[in-house]
Amino acid sequence: MSSEYAILLFYHYHPTDAPPEAEWHRAACARLALCGRLRVAPQGLNGTLSGRRAQLLEYAAAYTRRAPSAASVDWKLSAAAEEQCFRSLSVRVVREVVSLGVPATAAPPEGAAAHLRAEEFDAWLRRGGGREAGGKVVLLDTRNCYEWGIGRFEAGGVATLLPPIRQFSEWPRWLEGQLAALEGCTVLMYCTGGVRCETASSYLRQRAGGAVKQIFQLYGGIERYLDAFPSGGFFRGKNLVFDKRLAVGPAQAEVVGRCFVCASPADDYSRQRRCAHCRLLLLSAASFRGRSAQLQRKLRGHARLVFVDAPHRCATAGEARAGEARGGVLEGEAGRRGGGGAGGGRYSWLRAEGEEGVEGRDDGWGDTVAYLRGVFRDHGPFDGLLGFSLGAAAAAGLAALQAQRAADVLPIAFRFVVLVSGHSARDTSIHPLLSGGAIPCPSLHVFGRADEVVAPAASENLADCFSPEMRSVLQHHGGHILPATDACVKELINFFRQFTPGVSVQAYQPVEQACEAK
What we know:
Residues 133-234 form the Rhodanese domain. The chain is α/β, with parallel strands linked by helices.
């Protein structure tokens, strides 16, 4: 990943006059073209900013000159793709650095527990609860259930307390029921980046008094632990972060989360997909349209995008199964006015397993093809198809049907496909279509090396289903996104030009590009 852009996480407990302090940060960020979120309270500030690495470092240096005590701040700087950066700046004055929901006197910053560096924290976990540790050791998570649901510390001989809470302000009430279990224990506390433990450890010290043997907090949180132990150490799964990276962790992180509908392994909270099995929260056309707004602007004059909603309503917990076909067609950025398909909700190109099919085995591919026939008939013709994730698999399936001159696909006709973060949709009706040899359709395959939703190898496998003489591969350094960097847009435009009427272009040649984030 290019080091030009980065994300900066930090917090600083430092008594301040919040309104003028907030104004200084607002002006500094504007001057340096930084975006993100800053919360300024009388006790200090907490922030996540993104932008060019050099400007982030300049911001940190300027703040340290303004507040010399910031020399001790743990500035967590992580490389990021341009697409992962914030697009706006929000600086707000708040009552607390983090909202624990108790009076400030119940958790004063000066009462925070002692810090353990990542290596020291790891050593405690290695010793476990044996004699060497000097008694029982308890891990205490201060995060919300949806955070520890996809990643948490686990160590043999060490009990882990995971709070079933949805927001930090619920943590004190939950803790009241755990105080008896913590008596005589050494408590190791952790959170995402450290700021919540500063407050939570102070509150625990106030409430437990001398009943707890020792209390420590992980310095820099899970972020710093994973820096020190890139393979994960005692941390299993991924660390949920509150920026466009969504979750970070080892490259081969174990999936510890479970879909709340079907209990299949899942660890992605993006709007694109949470669970590949029940297809809950699959990317709908509405969310894809919003995420592609920057790309649409850059493609003006070269390509016009028409957005088509998928036909199958995704059932959610508490809803009856919904197998009815729905959909909608919107052009360009006009779709910003409203939600996705007809009737709202989320839609998929395939029906979730068990929905409205004969003995639960019909995945709805036939209905999808019939639905798209209507789209082509009523809104076509179209030069090509652009599909994302499962939509890319559906577009590939249509290309295979078109190559077979399947009667049921008419009047669907197109000249090329662009498949973004695609896969071959194993265990579905699409997959057999892609196994019949090289599909003779010009194709551009776009995927990110850091994609944690669809593995890059899966996108490469989909590319292999197409004729090598007619395919291009465009890799970028981001994740499960449609990239809009200048370099990537240039390659898209070059691909489209081959199909522009009246423009002389050279014969189509396969090419593989590695698109650097700009």
